[in-house]
Amino acid sequence: MSNTLLSSLAEANVNLRVSFDGKDVELGNLFRATECKRSPSILFDQEVDAPGDATYMLLLVDPDAPTPDDPKFAFWRHWVLPGLRPLGSADAVAQIQPALTEYLGPGPKDDSKPHRYLLLLYRQPSNLDLTKDDVGGEEFTQRRSFDTAKFVEKYDLQLVGVNWFLGAGDGWKE
């Protein structure tokens, strides 16, 4: 994992709550591929010092593609969701911009060790207006080798929340 990304993890101060059909992501717990077929629900609180109209972008990336032992396609881009805004005490999040990368659930092979899946929440600049092409395209092969650190730096994204899980194929044996 890039040193830039690792150093910014310590700055994350927002509790990012993620769940797949009611099963919470809890900083490294294991999910099977079928548990992640549908996009998860996302909840987070407003940052204490952020303006009330702050918006956020969620990235879901896999640093272990195609396998943890040979991550030549890291970071695999599974989801890029901009324009998220927490709705006060309503325990809900509004999405005010369309997805830049549509959700594609984890799909590690059964013979692969579990992959790490990082859910990274960034505060985005108020004037940020990206297209799907700015992220790299939707095609399967366009999602691989996504340079997360370069993307974050280029668009001045500020990491505020992190969560992660392990994903394994349905037939993977421990």
From TrEMBL:
Q: Which InterPro entries match?
A: PEBP, PEBP-like_sf, PEBP_euk
List the SUPFAM superfamilies hit by this protein, alphabetically: PEBP-like
Q: Which GO terms describe its molecular function?
A: peptidase inhibitor activity; phospholipid binding
Q: Which domain of life is it from?
A: Eukaryota
Its GO biological process annotations read: regulation of proteolysis; regulation of Ras protein signal transduction
- Write one Pfam family the protein is assigned to: PBP
The name under which this protein is listed is: OV-16 antigen
Tell me which species this is from. Fusarium culmorum
